[in-house]
Design brief:
Layout: H1 3-20, E1 31-34, E2 37-43, E3 88-91, E4 108-115, E5 124-130, E6 136-141, E7 144-150, E8 156-159, E9 170-177, E10 202-208, E11 212-219, H2 225-231, E12 233-255, E13 260-278, E14 291-297, E15 300-306, E16 311-314, E17 317-320, E18 323-324, E19 327-332, E20 335-336, E21 341-342, H3 346-358, E22 363-366, H4 374-382, E23 385-389, H5 401-418, E24 424-431, H6 437-453, E25 458-464, E26 471-474, E27 485-488, E28 505-508, E29 514-518, H7 537-554, E30 559-562, E31 570-571, E32 584-585, H8 598-615
Parallel strand pairs: 19-22, 19-30, 22-23, 23-24, 24-25, 25-27, 26-28, 27-29, 29-30
Antiparallel strand pairs: 1-10, 2-3, 2-4, 4-9, 5-8, 5-10, 6-7, 6-9, 11-12, 12-13, 12-14, 14-15, 16-17, 17-18, 20-21, 31-32
The chain binds alpha-D-glucopyranuronic acid.
Alpha-D-glucopyranuronic acid binds at residues 191, 368, 431-432, 488, 518, 565, 585, 587.
């Protein structure tokens, strides 16, 4: 291919890349080829593959650039890099758990593999999709940089310019860097392990030149759901967005199980959906009913599994399908503790959510960042509600526009990936951010962005409580804008001892559902002592006993749910107690070996009691 042709193709790519690189929703329902498996790597702490000896970014054709194949024609050709065994690494997966030298590593690792051009008809194009790369990814194909993505927990994809693909051995190189920076989201200080790498699935996605890019279909939240249930007739609302303006085509929406099929003509790059459907079973935690929904354009059909439900706030109640619901939750990091690694697979999701079910919980707060896509999909099928959030955590640089733009980008990527997941009932926009005018302006902008993106869910943030010698007041200005007043309180761990819960008083400024988004205490699994001994299982159990008693006797009527911190012990570089922690945050109800602590059964008993009350209501 002549350079001029490639230049034209490349210019077209750059000019149209915004629309062309919008998130491809539901890759599970599309034609894909997995690029998971064994890749090569080079560890590059000095960025030698990226910068020359004057620390200038290497130009495209530079033979020293790691994104270029080394050119070795004769014995004396200079090159100092190549991707070869035994330097191999598994994708998906963080690098930290794959080799002891990676445990603490923060910096750059180059990933490389080749792939052959897939069979394409003349009306098809191919995209490269990454489930997530933590934290920054520069992606090169056959020596050309195609995309840079920042944000360690959300997917991104981009179209591969046709002229760039060769029949065999397309050289895919990804520069991955997980260094922390003050202006990143999250910022430099987090209480979790900074797992780096291509941590989730990588795939080629094949689409027609004109295709469905995103869609949203859910019960119209404004309908009278009680009346709809009585009549068995429900209003569905939503939209479909295409990758380009389309005309003279028909879009067909079909829900075969209820014999629903409707076609609408397409003019433009999106259209609204608004129709009535009869006799659907609503999705809820006792009957997580999912329907195959087919979206078809030019005989190309994308099938998704969608649960239809409404979630709203009415006064101080949270309503699921119009019925008051108490959220019996627990927090969870995206980690398989016993293997000290990021969770990334369907099997991982089934294991983690299986433990949630054993707790008799009906909800999980996915802390503190969007988890992999298997989590909400498995939660949909199990009937577990989710709070999912972006990592706007602690001391973010609230006064910088580029930081807010990054947070909004990650929020858009999170919502656009999961907006059709019935299990997600709450979008979280931050955690324990210190109150200031700048911060409240920043966070309020995120609340508004979330509401603009999706009117079918609630928006929350984990606020902080003002402790004042037992008089705990909740008046964070952000509570004015969120749908519920959620806060993290550590009475009995960071503040006083568990018996301090007995005299605690609570005042909540806002007339909204009141929610405890974190509470808990540390315990080393298997360490038993008098309950007054910190880090004993008995102390943690005592904390849960006193907290539960406080919920029952001291909390306002508006108390609508809780997600105690946390289901599993998890790795954190901040937890250095040489006897009880050794890089583990010990607030889990299950330790890193998978053993349940005494407090697990205390919370389980409370949740069984609440479940009984709910079933007999
Ligand atoms: C905070 C924070 C968590 C942290 C926890 C703890 O509330 O939100 O991320 O791990 O406290 O101190 O254990």
């Amino acid at each position: 291919m002549k350079n001029i042709d490639f230049l034209i193709a490349f210019l077209f790519y750059v000019l149209t890349s915004e629309a062309q690189n919008e998130l491809l929703m539901n890759t599970f329902g599309r034609k894909t080829i997995s690029l998971n498996g064994t890749w090569h790597y080079i560890i590059d702490p000095y960025e030698t593959g990226f910068y020359d000896y004057r620390f200038k970014e290497r130009p495209e054709g530079d033979p020293g650039a790691y994104w270029n194949k080394p050119v070795i024609k004769t014995n004396n050709d200079w090159t100092e890099h190549s991707f070869k065994e035994p330097y191999t690494i598994q994708v998906p997966g963080d690098w930290n758990h794959q080799d002891p030298k990676f445990l603490y590593y923060e910096g750059t690792v180059w990933y490389q593999r080749t792939f052959d051009k897939p069979q394409l008809n003349e009306n098809e194009e191919v995209h490269l999709y990454f489930g997530a790369v933590n934290y920054k990814a520069d992606v090169y194909l056959n020596g050309k940089k195609l995309v840079v993505h920042k944000g360690g927990f959300t997917p991104f994809n981009f179209i591969i310019p046709k002229g760039l693909l060769q029949e065999k051995d397309n050289n895919l190189v990804v520069h991955v860097n997980n260094n922390r920076h003050p202006d990143d989201v999250p910022t430099v200080n987090t209480d979790w392990w900074n797992y780096g790498g291509i941590t989730r699935d990588v795939k080629l996605v094949i689409t027609s030149k004109q295709h469905i890019r995103q869609y949203h279909l859910q019960l119209d939240p404004e309908q009278d759901i009680a009346k709809a249930k009585r009549k068995g007739r429900f209003k569905l609302k939503g939209w479909v967005k295409f990758n380009t303006a389309i005309s003279d085509q028909e879009l067909t929406i079909e829900i075969p199980e209820v014999k629903f099929k409707e076609s609408v003509s397409v003019e433009g790059n999106s259209l609204q959906l608004d129709f009535e459907v009869k006799n659907i079973e609503l999705w809820d935690t006792k009957n997580p009913k999912l329907y195959d929904v087919n979206f078809s354009l030019n005989k190309n059909t994308i099938t998704d599994k969608i649960g239809f439900r409404t979630v709203k706030v009415e006064g101080t109640d949270i309503l699921l399908n119009g019925e008051k619901t108490f959220l019996r939750g627990i927090c969870l990091h995206e980690e398989i503790a016993k293997e000290e690694r990021r969770a990334y697979s369907k099997t991982d999701a089934e294991y983690l959510l299986g433990q949630v079910q054993e707790l008799h919980a009906n909800m999980v707060r996915l802390a503190h960042y969007p988890h992999n896509e298997y989590m909400p999909r498995v939660a949909d099928s199990l009937g577990i509600m989710l709070w999912t959030e972006i990592p706007v955590y602690w001391t973010i640089n609230f006064d910088k526009k580029e930081v807010l733009d990054n947070a909004k980008q990650q929020l858009n990527e999170m919502v656009n990936r999961d907006r059709n997941r019935a299990s997600i009932v709450l979008w979280g926009v931050g955690n324990e951010t210190p109150v200031s005018d700048k911060r409240t302006e920043f966070m309020t902008a995120l609340v508004k962005e979330a509401k603009a993106l999706d009117q079918t869910r609630l928006v929350a943030a984990a606020l902080e409580v003002g402790y004042n010698k037992g008089k705990n007041h909740v008046d964070d200005p952000l509570g004015e804008f969120t749908d519920i007043v959620a806060l993290n309180e550590y009475l009995g761990w960071y503040v006083s001892t568990p018996d301090g819960c007995r005299t605690a008083e609570w005042s909540v400024k806002y007339d909204k559902p009141f929610f405890i988004s974190e509470t808990g205490a540390g315990a080393k699994g298997g360490f038993h002592a008098d309950k007054t001994k910190r880090f004993s299982e008995e102390y943690q159990q005592w904390l849960y006993e006193e907290q539960i008693n406080m919920f029952k006797t001291k909390f306002p009527e508006s108390f609508s749910g809780l997600t105690p911190w946390i289901l599993f012990d998890f790795k954190s570089p901040k937890r250095k107690n040489p006897v009880y922690q050794e890089n583990w945050n010990r607030k889990g109800l299950i330790d890193e070996k998978g053993n349940k602590k005494l407090a697990f059964y205390t919370l389980q008993a409370y949740y069984k009691e609440l479940e009984e009350l709910e079933n007999n209501r």
